[in-house]
Amino acid sequence: MERFEVNILGCGSALPTTKHSLSSQVVNLRDKLFMIDCGEATQLQFRAMKLNFTRLNHIFISHLHGDHCFGLPGLISTLGLLGRTAELHIHAQPNAEKVFSPLLDYFCKELPYPVIFHAFDPKKNMLIFEDRTLKVSTIPLKHRVPTAGFLFEEKPKSAHILREMIDFYQVPFSQINAIKDGAGFITPDGQIIANDRLTRPADAPKKYAYCSDTAYTEKIIPIIEGVDLLYHEATFGENERTRAKRTMHSTARQAAEIARAANVKKLALGHFSARYPDETVLLAEAQAIFPNTILANERQSLKL
Questions:
Q1: Domains: count for the chain
Q2: What is the mean pLDDT of residues 121-150?
Q3: Same domain, 95 and 231
Q4: Using CB atoms within 10 A of its CB, is residue 66 exposed (0-12), middle (13-18) or buried (19+)?
């Protein structure tokens, strides 16, 4: 099984605590690292989890609230001190470049690598990154400032070769890739060997959805339908439902209702308010609606 995991660097909300760092995650797909949000202390948690700075080339910023992006200048500076020369790509709403460029010009004047900003419209569900193994799309969220979540989708994989059948029929190496892509094989004596005798189906592509920060909104359900893992903010419990609505955040119960409606496989709660020293109350509220719910925690790796 190829690696697809989500590393939690920070899952607290706006007020830092000794228990929780501010929002940041790293998606590891086949040893390529993709960062989501970059709150303060992100680079420290990155080091603590023994992640490789050289494998990080893309950072996705959900919105321009400080607890999701104040760590970005420091991380960019550190990468320069480490001698980075490869491009670093920042995917964010259009104002991000205007906000961060003056800081980088002042504090990182001799940066040895280019930082490239890619703007997206947080109000639209759109493809913003693609390579041969992965697609990343935005999830329009409902918050006080323009905000988007992110959907990470593996691309379909080739079928698995059955080595014993390849050897039995003496299939030339030159035809292996075609067989992986669905072709059959014709033996030297004209016998047609169907593809399903030579392969077994590929593993289903994995999907991960990140939804923080947002008020309850059913508009995201079709986008995140059936994902293997949903990270959804659960800033408040039901005792603060009115406050959640006013600040355009979600309760743990609301996160669970979204997970249930979207038929996701697993729900991870995060973005916890500092007013909850023990988040098990949030977990209980969510599990009453969607049993396969866990609490996110710093330095945790969630495997899909």
A1: 2
A2: 97
A3: yes
A4: exposed
Q: Are residues 251 and 136 in the same domain?
A: yes
DSSP conformation class of 172: -
pTM reported for the whole predicted model: 0.92
Catalytic residues, which ones?
Answer: 67
Residue 304 within a domain? no
The answer on 82 and 26 residing in a single domain is yes
Instruction: Answer for the pair 249, 217: CB distance below 8 angstroms, yes or no.
Output: no
Tokens, residue 299: 């330095």
Question: What is the DSSP code (8-state) at residue 54?
Answer: G
For residues 15 and 81, state if they share a domain. yes
β-bridge mates for residue 29, sequence order: 4, 32
| Spatial separation of the C-alpha atoms in residues 206 and 227, rounded to whole Å | 7
CB 67 within 8 A of CB 102: no
How many alpha carbons fall within 13 Å on the CB side of residue 130?
5
DSSP letter assigned to residue 202: P
> Residue 297 contacts by C-beta under 8 Å, 6 or more apart in sequence?
8, 11
Token pair in block for residue 292 = 């396969």
pLDDT score at 128: 98
As given in the structure block, the two tokens for residue 30 are 């086949």
Q: Where are the beta strands (DSSP E) in the chain?
A: 4-10, 24-29, 32-36, 56-60, 88-92, 115-119, 127-130, 134-140, 148-154, 160-161, 185-186, 192-193, 199-200, 207-211, 229-233, 267-270, 293-295, 300-303
**Residue ranges making up the domain that contains 238:** 4-157+203-298
pLDDT in tens, 242-257: 999 999 999 999 999 9
The Cα 254–Cα 286 span in angstroms is 8
Phi-psi region of 170 (alpha: psi -120 to 50; beta: other; left: phi over 0): left
Listed in sequence order, the residues at least 6 apart from 261 whose beta carbon sits closer than 8 Å to its beta carbon are 218, 221
Residues 11 and 111 in one domain: yes
The amino acid at 19? K
